[in-house]
Amino acid sequence: MPGGGFAVVADLVSTLAMRAEDEAKRARVQLSTTQDEVGVAVGAVGQVDGALETILARCAEAADLMRGIADDNAALATAIGEIKGAVHQLDGIAQQNAAMVEQTLGAAASLAQRIAALAGHAGAFRHDRRERDVRVAFDRRANGARRAQGAPALAAPGTLVRLTDRAAGPLVSA
What we know:
The protein is mainly alpha-helical. It has 2 domains: 2-125; 129-174, no CATH class. 71% of the residues lie in helices and 5% in strands. The protein is built from 1 helix and 2 strands, in the order H-E-E. The longest helix has 123 residues, at 2-124.
């Protein structure tokens, strides 16, 4: 059968063509699906790119804030150092003042003891209630100064003054 072989071949070619057409349809569907997925992927890449740009911008802002904080910390450290120096100076002054107070208290106590001793010595003198003339020294510090009301006038150098009894009148008269 010479014509039968051609029919078999034609049938095989027709079957192959149908299979090729089915495979082409599947390929077109897969290609369409792949194109849709590529479009979705491109959109996702765009979103990721935008997110990365936002992250980079925020990182730059954070870096600027950190530089500002570092500068503020440096200024604060300088101010604290100056305050520390001032406090150290105040502490030294306070210690000096405390030492001066102690010295002043010691001097005042010593002076009080001397005054008490002088008062004791002055009490040992007898007063015979007679008037006497006594030469007094001139006080140059009071030269030209006003004297307090009721205070005795200062005598000129070599002037004789009269000491009298307390009950009878002032001890010093010019």
